[in-house]
Predict the structure of DUF2808 domain-containing protein.
Amino acid sequence: MRVAVILAIAIATVAGIETYTQKPSPAIQLRDGTVYFAQPPRLVEAATTYNEVYVWGATYYFTLSLPENAGEPLQQVTINQHQGVDNIRFDLKNSFAFEGTRSDKGQKFKLQDGASNQKSRTVTLRFEPPISPGQTITIGLKPKRNPAVAGVYLFGVTAFPAGEKSHGQFLGFGRLHFYGSRFNSIFFPYGW
């Protein structure tokens, strides 16, 4: 029996017949029209270009991997500051997104809308057009400045599939650690 299966696969391969085809997974849609990813994206990394307090010109990178079997394209991402003394404000006009990682940048993606809610400490970014499954994307958020208070800052990342009524799926926390600068500790030993 085993020899027959191996022989059938060998004949099909030589004849150019495709023996296995992986079809994309369909999205999950509830009766009320709510759309879910079949396989949600994954938060790969969170990093900053500068990790000293009160620094201007930093970029916070959040890298997501959208699997082939996601079932739906990625339409929107929210990033919510869950932990950290200082309330970080972002310059959404200069924030951006691209295919790939920080060290391997690809084509840029257009961000249609960017909104910030200071009370809930949440940034919402919408892709137009939505990002197709099977890609790694990186979002570059530009803070107006790094926090004034050193410590660990946690950012919750949630992804939403395309659709009128889509359900956000929490991907995890991006962790950024900010340190007091040498200048600050000499001249402002108790903080700003």
